[in-house]
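User: Here's a structure from my thesis project, written as structure tokens. My advisor, Dr. K., wants to see whether a designed sequence matches the one we expressed. Can you design one independently, without my sequence as a hint?
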């Protein structure tokens, strides 16, 4: 539904501050992990119903709209250290951990270390959680029948995105650029991306910025300000916001 009404613009990440050899190493360990036999990958499978919200996920079977969703991913916390559970980080291939730690340093380089970001999203050094995803989109001979990712908005305050050089990310233009995005797949090439999701404090109240909805500009969506924890609950359970 959303798809038919939306005009999509191509978005290419610039990987600012990430050395090309670091991306190549992320790619190498990622490809090696996703090429493992399914039983091996399933050892890390996420299972939200039993409280395992981190680990390996596969979307190959699901088809919410008229296009099949075709991607594999790994999802785990990278910061703060006390929240990291290395049980969700693959032991194979060797080097996965070292390669992926670069993403924490990248996010720290954006000001998290000095507390600037923590302050912006609710204050306190203990509040921000960084979740990292590794997305793996195999090529499809009929890419128009498939999406790597259905249209969605990320569940966080900010996403820091590193990608390889295969295009795929599209952002809804819906009047002006919005946060709604989706991923298409390539006919020939595997695509990979490494988003880091910066979560605000659980009790941080989120809502439209007053300058975006005040002064006679009507709110576009029916939304009540609420804590990030409540926002997450409503989003996951598809409840009205
Ligand atoms: O693959 C991409 O470029 C974006 C992935 C994405 O939107 C997500 O994992 O939430
Ligand atoms: Fe996303």
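Assistant: Designed independently from the structure alone:
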């Amino acid at each position: 539904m959303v798809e038919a009404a939306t005009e999509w613009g191509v978005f290419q990440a610039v990987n600012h501050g990430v050395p090309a050899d670091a991306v190549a190493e992320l790619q190498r360990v990622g490809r090696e992990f996703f090429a493992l036999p399914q039983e091996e990958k399933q050892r890390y499978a996420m299972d939200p119903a039993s409280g395992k919200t981190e680990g390996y996920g596969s979307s190959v079977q699901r088809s919410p709209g008229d296009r099949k969703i075709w991607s594999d991913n790994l999802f785990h916390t990278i910061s703060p250290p006390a929240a990291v559970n290395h049980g969700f980080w693959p032991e194979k291939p060797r080097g996965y951990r070292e390669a992926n730690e670069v993403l924490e340093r990248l996010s720290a380089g954006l000001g998290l270390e000095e507390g600037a970001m923590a302050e912006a999203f609710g204050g306190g050094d203990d509040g921000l959680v960084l979740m990292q995803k590794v997305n793996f989109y195999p090529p499809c001979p009929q890419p128009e029948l498939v999406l790597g990712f259905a249209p969605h908005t990320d569940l966080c305050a900010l996403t820091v995105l590193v990608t390889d050089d295969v295009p795929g990310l599209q952002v809804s233009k819906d009047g002006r650029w919005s946060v709604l995005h989706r991923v298409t797949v390539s006919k020939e090439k595997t695509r990979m991306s490494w988003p880091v999701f910066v979560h605000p404090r659980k009790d941080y109240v989120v809502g439209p910025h007053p300058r975006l909805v005040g002064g006679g500009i009507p709110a576009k969506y029916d939304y009540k300000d609420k804590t990030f924890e409540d926002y997450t609950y409503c989003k996951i359970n598809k409840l009205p916001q």
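When you compare it with your expressed construct, this may help: The longest strand covers residues 129-137.
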